[in-house]
Amino acid sequence: MSEPELQLDPAIRIWVFLPIVLITFLIGVLRHYVSVLLSSQKKIDLAAVTDSQLLIRARMLRENGKYLPKQSFLMRKHYLNNEESGLLKAGTKRQTAPPNPMTDPSMMTEMLKGNLTSMVPMVVVGGWINWHFSGFVTTKVPFPLTLRFKPMLQRGIELQSLDASWVSSVSWYFLNVFGLRSIYSLVLGENNAADQARAMQESMSMQAGGMPPDSKQAFKGEWEALEVTEHNWALKNSDQEMMSLVEPTPEHLYHQK
Q1: pLDDT band at 249 (very low <50, low <70, confident <90, very high)
Q2: What does 173-236 look like in DSSP terms, one character per residue?
Q3: 108 CA to centre of own chain
Q4: Higher-pLDDT residue of 167, 247
Q5: What are phi and psi of 137, to 5 degrees?
Q6: 68 CB contacts (<8 Å, ≥6 apart)?
Q7: Nearest to 222 by CA among 98, 100, 86
Q8: Long-range contacts of 215-218 (CB under 8 A, 24+ apart)
Q9: For the segment 86-119, what is each residue's pLDDT rounded down to a tens digit?
Q10: Distance (Å, rounded) from C-alpha 147 to C-alpha 164?
Q11: Among 200-204, 205-209, 216-220, the range of highest mean pLDDT
Q12: 210: closest CA among 101, 110, 104?
């Protein structure tokens, strides 16, 4: 004999389910506008942009040089890889050390602002919901789940007999934190600061990114790759191949029966 189905009080939908959704959404909107107010315009390093464009140009020459005549390819290769005045070769001789982001005050300030507007509100609001709505079962997912999902979906409720498909109030809050991305994009636009998943990903990548790439090593690798690149013209005999597809062929153009 199967166990009777759990019946929820309809008042839970009005006083627990919907308020958690509304609170999560409003906190996300508030976090977005606070992030906009605290954000500062990033300064663009002209040297870094120049180096980046130069590396892109060298990579494009390696990948698409086959569509250039051999003389044009060799001229561009000499301009970049010349031992005396080549731009890539000059980049490999730099003696400047790569910048350390941990010693940059602006970088540390941006990390502090990101944690202040993303992690702190989530922890504070999550703790308040855990205290105010503790012990409530809010909803049930429309498909069966295994017992491995109970710790994730039933935080704050320690009932072994409760089916794993039921969701507690605290778990419902965290599902809303990471599940309202489409609503935020619809209301605030694509590049919004209310997306908690994107904010956490950016914060973790900024903290775990470590040292930025060394431009000297990047120039050296691109110089070596371009140095061993040989020119194989992809358009060789292309005119003959094109004419072979055209009817009538040159042999039959003036043929008379």
Answers
A1: low
A2: HHHHHHH-HHHHHHHH-SS-S--HHHHHHHHHHHHH--SPPPHHHHHHHHHHHHHTPPP--TTT
A3: 21
A4: 167
A5: -100, 120
A6: 76, 231, 233
A7: 86
A8: 215/48, 215/51, 215/91, 215/94, 215/98, 216/91, 216/92, 216/94, 216/96, 216/98, 218/51, 218/55, 218/91
A9: 888 887 777 665 556 566 666 677 777 777 777 8
A10: 6
A11: 216-220
A12: 101
**Alpha-carbon span 53 to 92, nearest angstrom:** 16
Of 10, 7, 8, 23, nearest to 132 (Cα)? 23
| For residue 248, cis peptide bond before it (omega within 30 degrees of 0) | yes
* Residue type for position 84: E
Q: What is the pLDDT of residue 1?
A: 41
CA atoms within 13 A on the CB side of 162: 22
Specify the residue for token string 């999560």: 24
Tens of pLDDT, residues 19-78: 999 999 999 899 888 888 887 777 777 888 888 899 999 999 999 988 888 899 999 999
**Structure tokens that stand for 126 in this block:** 């999550």
